[in-house]
Amino acid sequence: MANLEILIPKQVGFLSPLVQIILVSLLFVVTIVWQYKEYRQTGKTWGGYYPLHTSSFFAAIYEEVIFRGFIFAWLLNVYSLFGAIVISSLLFGLWHLKNIFYMEKKALIYQMLYTGFVFGPIASLITFYTGTIWLAVIFHFCNNLLAVSSLNFIAKKQR
Question: Is the pLDDT of residue 60 over 70?
Answer without folding.
Answer: yes
